Amino acid sequence: MSSIESATDLDPVVLPAIPPVHLSNGQVATLQVADRLQRGKQIVGRFETSGLAGFKIASQGRALRVKMALSMDDVSVSGWHDGKIAGPALPRFVQIRSQGRLRQCVVLKGRNPHARVAFDLAADEIPDDGLICVEALDITEGDGISQDVRDALRGRVAQDGVAGLRLDKIVFEEPPEKDFDPDTLDGCRCETSSFISAGGLANVNRQGPRILRCGMLVVNPVLPDTFGSGERLTLRLGAKAEPVSVIPANWRRVKGELRWLRHATRKLLGAGAPTVEKVFSLRDGDLGAPEVTTKGNIAELSLPGGTGAPLLVLLGRCGGVTPVLESALSRS
């Protein structure tokens, strides 16, 4: 009995793309697999829900660096692909995995937020056929996530967080020999570097403090020799009261003015620092009492670096005052 071959002479032969590869279009042969990802023409694609994209890349036995640009827009809602629209008001919490391993997480909230992801793949993680798979999963899905984390996020983040998420661009390239590694970054640049995810930025070129409207942030594993790869991390947190002019002129405005005055008084007395509720490793769970030092209106949170797993920081609620990430310090 002769064997039956699955391929035929009519099947096209797709050669792996040779790095550096910059993809911002889903209509290319390099994108070999699209599971619950609708291919785009001016973007790589849009996820219907938690899904996967597989790219054929010729690594030639070398490590590769993967960079991704993600975003949300008005279509980023559950059921967008079949006309059943239901937009969540809560933040999205999305895992980015590759070759079966969790790499980084992004938290997205607000109008048209953008996020960046960056990670390295070792040579032995890339198969001979060059197929590199990238997954976007809701935090409630997949294995390797501590149940402590999922319990803590219940009610704080949206269900089906990947629905409508855009994969705007993906890059595959060889890692450089050495990256520029500053000691300190301001809050916004922490997020554009993929070290911190705190809701996504509408303007990726913005600099200065980062307002933390989600009440949480994720500290991601970072690339070697880049900011955040040191042994200790220090996040410098402040607080900001919303201007009373943005509050409607009714009883809510009166309450808002009282909160603003209360916060202003606390700052004047040097007691306006935000509180850190909990710190979790997404892999190992609750890390115990947060290591926080308060200096006047600033709280400094000390975290271990190089943990290999994202860290979730939950911030305490303090009477309508919004916490702010002023800056971060990385030390060897």
Automatic annotation (TrEMBL):
It comes from the Bacteria. This is Uncharacterized protein.
